[in-house]
Amino acid sequence: MRLHHVQLACPRGGEAEARRYWTDGLGLTEVHKPADLAGRGGAWFRAYDGSGGVTAEVHVGVEEPFTPARRAHPALLLDDVVALAETADRLAGLGFEVDWTERHTFPGHQRCHTRDGHGNRVELLAPIGADAP
Predict the structure, then answer these.
(1) End-to-end CA distance of the chain
(2) Integer Cα distance of 11 and 67 in angstroms
(3) Which SUPFAM superfamilies would you find in this protein's record (predicted)?
(4) pLDDT of 38-84, one tens digit each?
(5) Three-class SS of residue 123?
(6) Quick check: 84 and 133 in contact, CB under 8 A?
(7) Residue 86 CA to chain centroid, in angstroms?
(8) pLDDT at 128 over 70
(9) Confidence (pTM)
(10) Would you kindly state where each structural domain of the chain is located, as residue ranges?
């Protein structure tokens, strides 16, 4: 079994802010939604490895009434702590919340928690030590 995607929500009209977080901030690529689903709004994003394989997929769907996921969250694994720091800096530079409070609380990893432009929690982590690639 593998995870195909995770879904987060945004308010109606929130797609541009979702694009700013997922593409500008995290570097994912927006992909077209299937025609049968496109009319619902929202946006889909993918991350690819060096050979073009999909490594992560996030669907941002319109939800009314909208309530951000404040505790539940996806966790995205970055290659190393340098990539983690660079990504966190890029997000902070774009005005997104980045919290390093729990940086050393997940064994074998460093991590931070961020909030997308709608307040949804997203964890970013990278292996350290023996777990590093």
Answers:
(1) 23
(2) 8
(3) Glyoxalase/Bleomycin resistance protein/Dihydroxybiphenyl dioxygenase
(4) 999 999 999 999 999 999 999 999 999 999 999 999 999 999 999 99
(5) strand
(6) no
(7) 14
(8) yes
(9) 0.93
(10) 6-131
